[in-house]
């Protein structure tokens, strides 16, 4: 970890962090790891109660290698894994038809409307199919929970009513990601955890991970991954380095370029946010003595306040884990860390 005064920040984030904590603005925060120029320049852990995919863990003393649910940040990892599998020739190109990849559902494959669905529509969550994750993740009214409870999760997803032409609009869908996860497994001949370990985590030096399975034994591609904040930050740093790590190519840079190309506008209460291949794409207005300009970033977001932010222009990565699952104000603590601690420290002296 960099010594004080050698971090590369324009001003020290520690006093801002401590002040925010004293004001109660970090309730539920468990881990914060910031990288600048490829080095850990800030790292804090706060003990607290936590869960493992909804199961209480009680009070946890968080350490650098403690695993934590990253919930829907898992979706963005699936986006990276699809790119790796594509490079190996194991999965179809994004414009290939989707339903034909599940020949066991031949009746659905004969539906003219479903024939229009492509892998790209799943990668961008623009399937145009009915899916609702606005209900609590403790309720079967939530489509992801209903999927987990279904006798056949993949038929459940592909059989959803079609509401609009594919590609027209964005509907947040864990089901879309579950389909991609199964395509990866079938194409590679490996389970998602094994493929991820062999092609992403081990090459990055990430040893500790857990991928939770549903009641049907299927690894949850939508939300089941558990990593430490350091490991999450390492993935962000690999993205900053154009998909390379230790001189080795992990993910093709062309795939990252495609992944971070806006494909849909999203309405998540964050003005101007867009969506690529399972990654959120944003731009923050930064004002300094030269004027105001836009600083672009990519982000992965998960229930409870899990966050991974990558700011290429600042050479900056921020990983956050929190335990505020299902709370209506779960966004507050990670937003405060970004806007009251780290962005000011990057831009203000």
UniProtKB/TrEMBL annotation:
InterPro entries: Beta-lactam-related (IPR001466), Beta-lactam/transpept-like (IPR012338), Diverse_Enzym_Activities (IPR050789). GO terms for molecular function: hydrolase activity. The keyword Hydrolase applies. Keywords: Hydrolase. The keyword Hydrolase applies. Residues 21-320 form the Beta-lactamase-related domain. This is Serine hydrolase. It comes from Xaviernesmea rhizosphaerae.
